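Hi there, hope your week has been kind to you so far. Thanks so much in advance, here it is:
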Amino acid sequence: MSALHVSRVRALYRRILLLHRVLPPDLKDLGDQYVKDEFRRHKTAGSKEAERFLQEWERRLSSCGPRA
Protein backbone atom coordinates (compact mmCIF):
# COMPACT_ATOMS: atom_id res chain seq x y z
CA MET A 1 0.00 0.00 0.00
CA SER A 2 1.49 3.30 -1.05
CA ALA A 3 1.95 6.28 1.22
CA LEU A 4 -0.28 8.29 -1.14
CA HIS A 5 -3.10 5.78 -0.72
CA VAL A 6 -2.80 5.81 3.07
CA SER A 7 -2.78 9.61 3.08
CA ARG A 8 -5.86 9.71 0.84
CA VAL A 9 -7.74 7.25 3.07
CA ARG A 10 -6.89 9.16 6.25
CA ALA A 11 -7.87 12.52 4.75
CA LEU A 12 -11.20 11.15 3.55
CA TYR A 13 -11.88 9.51 6.91
CA ARG A 14 -11.14 12.78 8.74
CA ARG A 15 -13.38 14.82 6.40
CA ILE A 16 -16.29 12.44 6.93
CA LEU A 17 -15.94 12.51 10.73
CA LEU A 18 -15.69 16.32 10.64
CA LEU A 19 -19.01 16.48 8.80
CA HIS A 20 -20.58 14.36 11.53
CA ARG A 21 -19.74 16.99 14.15
CA VAL A 22 -22.84 19.00 13.23
CA LEU A 23 -25.20 16.06 13.72
CA PRO A 24 -27.21 15.50 16.88
CA PRO A 25 -25.23 13.33 19.33
CA ASP A 26 -27.17 10.11 18.64
CA LEU A 27 -26.84 10.45 14.88
CA LYS A 28 -23.18 11.47 15.18
CA ASP A 29 -22.43 8.34 17.20
CA LEU A 30 -24.31 6.15 14.73
CA GLY A 31 -22.61 7.76 11.72
CA ASP A 32 -19.15 7.61 13.28
CA GLN A 33 -19.56 3.93 14.10
CA TYR A 34 -20.83 3.15 10.59
CA VAL A 35 -17.86 4.92 8.98
CA LYS A 36 -15.37 3.23 11.32
CA ASP A 37 -16.86 -0.18 10.57
CA GLU A 38 -16.88 0.42 6.79
CA PHE A 39 -13.29 1.61 6.69
CA ARG A 40 -12.18 -1.26 8.93
CA ARG A 41 -13.95 -3.82 6.69
CA HIS A 42 -12.18 -2.46 3.62
CA LYS A 43 -8.74 -2.23 5.19
CA THR A 44 -7.57 -5.43 3.50
CA ALA A 45 -9.40 -4.89 0.20
CA GLY A 46 -7.57 -5.37 -3.07
CA SER A 47 -6.42 -2.30 -4.97
CA LYS A 48 -9.39 -2.19 -7.39
CA GLU A 49 -11.95 -2.67 -4.65
CA ALA A 50 -10.19 -0.11 -2.44
CA GLU A 51 -10.25 2.43 -5.28
CA ARG A 52 -13.98 1.89 -5.85
CA PHE A 53 -14.59 2.20 -2.11
CA LEU A 54 -12.71 5.51 -1.93
CA GLN A 55 -14.40 6.89 -5.05
CA GLU A 56 -17.84 6.07 -3.68
CA TRP A 57 -17.13 7.73 -0.34
CA GLU A 58 -15.64 10.77 -2.08
CA ARG A 59 -18.77 11.00 -4.24
CA ARG A 60 -20.98 10.77 -1.14
CA LEU A 61 -18.91 13.42 0.59
CA SER A 62 -19.09 15.81 -2.37
CA SER A 63 -22.88 15.45 -2.46
CA CYS A 64 -23.05 16.73 1.14
CA GLY A 65 -22.05 20.24 0.14
CA PRO A 66 -18.79 22.12 0.69
CA ARG A 67 -15.84 19.97 1.63
CA ALA A 68 -14.86 19.84 5.27
